[in-house]
Amino acid sequence: MATFGFQKIEVENTTDFPTIRRGRLEVLQVNLGYRCNLACTHCHVDAGPKRTESMDRSTIGEVLDFLRRGQVKTLDLTGGAPEMNPHFRLLVSKARQLGVHVIDRCNLTILEEPGYENLAAFLAEQQVEIVASLPCYLEDNVDKQRGKGVFQASIAALKKLNRLGYGAGGELKLNLVFNPQGPRLPPSQESLETAYKAHLSKQFGITFDRLYTLTNMPIRRFAHALEREGKLQHYLQLLRDSFDAANLEGLMCRTTISVDWRGYVYDCDFNQMLKLPLAGRRTHLREVSLDLIDNGIIATDDHCYGCTAGQGSSCGGALKA
Predict the structure, then answer these.
(1) Which pLDDT value is given to residue 311?
(2) Chain segment 266-282, per-residue pLDDT in tens
(3) Is residue 283 part of a domain?
(4) CA atoms within a 13 Å half-sphere pointing along the CA-CB vector of 186
(5) I need a surface site. Which of 74, 79, 88, 215 has the fewest CB within 10 A?
């Protein structure tokens, strides 16, 4: 039984998803908390303005300690809105001092919120790569999925980032993220990127580097919505039927571990939400050694079919053209 939604959903006790092992650790993905200024319908974290979970200063220090001893080259920050953590800037600046590449998974609208007016300039100063959610280039679709007014706030934020030099093909990388509307797989990432770039350039003069297409995972808020509409089992079957073994080699969990806001470690962000711990036991980041990680068996369940369906899905977008 796996907890895909707010309630326990009956699935097979053991999955038939193929056994996979981790390779060399390259990315430490850290969830800084579930607080967010938005409450998107596709959010598998169930983040929102009323959530209070937030990584404390002590755990931030343990993240930095792991970056030093683990020689991890990329720190991938997520949430909620990771920027709403009061220690966000400290973590970013200290990680950059260690020579670590930092990715901020930004919802864009946070850059327009009161109190965050100089956040974009800080990100540019620290040469932080921005991976920004923009689930469509049409206003009605974005506002339906993320809330009224979100599209216009996102456009304003993108223009601000462009003025700072983001998305111009240089060192300041700006990548956008597409999520489908409802229980369907994303279209071709390559063709959709072309459409995004043409529309945003023509209509708003906006440029960006890459578009990442991500499959919506049947976890938490999205799973609850599907269950309410009677579509959950159909979507789970779609993911299973669309399995492509060619995607196994590129799965993000093979080079990434995920840390929750309390410092506990998982194979990926999705396993974190489903309470499937790294190496089969609840382990804190301070207890993790590279021996535990390298070549370890990755905890899997039926939700893993979401990352291997169709063209594949990872934090870096589609796994194949």
Answers:
(1) 95
(2) 999 999 989 999 888 89
(3) yes
(4) 31
(5) 74
CA 99, distance to chain mean position in Å, is 22
How far is the C-alpha of 143 from the C-alpha of 152, rounded, in Å?
Answer: 9
The stretch 183-212 carries a mean pLDDT of 96
Helix or strand run (H / E) with residue 154: helix 150-163
Provide the angle, in degrees to the nearest 10, between the axes of the packed helices 150-163 and 139-146: 110
* DSSP three-state, residue 243: strand
Residues 299/271, Cβ–Cβ less than 8 Å: yes
The Cα 193–Cα 195 span in angstroms is 5
* Token pair in block for residue 15: 């999955």
CB of 206 within 8 A of CB of 217? no
Question: What is the rounded CA–CA span in Å between residue 65 and residue 91?
Answer: 11
Chain centre distance of CA 105 = 6
Host domain of residue 275: 27-308
For residue 15, the model assigns a pLDDT of: 87
Q: Please answer whether residues 69 and 98 qualify as being in contact, where contact means their C-beta atoms are separated by less than 8 angstroms.
A: no
Count: domains in the chain: 1
- The answer to whether residue 3 scores a pLDDT higher than 60 is no
Give me the amino acid identity at 223. Answer: A
Q: Which residues pair with 132 in a beta bridge?
A: 106, 176
In a domain, 2, yes or no: no
22 in Cβ contact with 255 (< 8 Å): yes
Token pair in block for residue 200: 């945003």
Type of residue numbered 224: H
Give the percent of the chain with pLDDT over 90.
74
* pTM beyond 0.90, yes or no: yes
Interatomic CA distance for residues 172 and 157, integer angstroms? 15
In a domain, 89, yes or no: yes
d(CA 162, CA 302): 40
- The answer as to whether 91 is a domain residue is yes
Nearest Cα residue to 154 out of 174, 128, 126, 183: 174
- What end-to-end distance do the CA atoms of the chain give, in Å? 34
Show the CA angle centred on residue 210, arms to residues 99 and 321, nearest 5°: 115
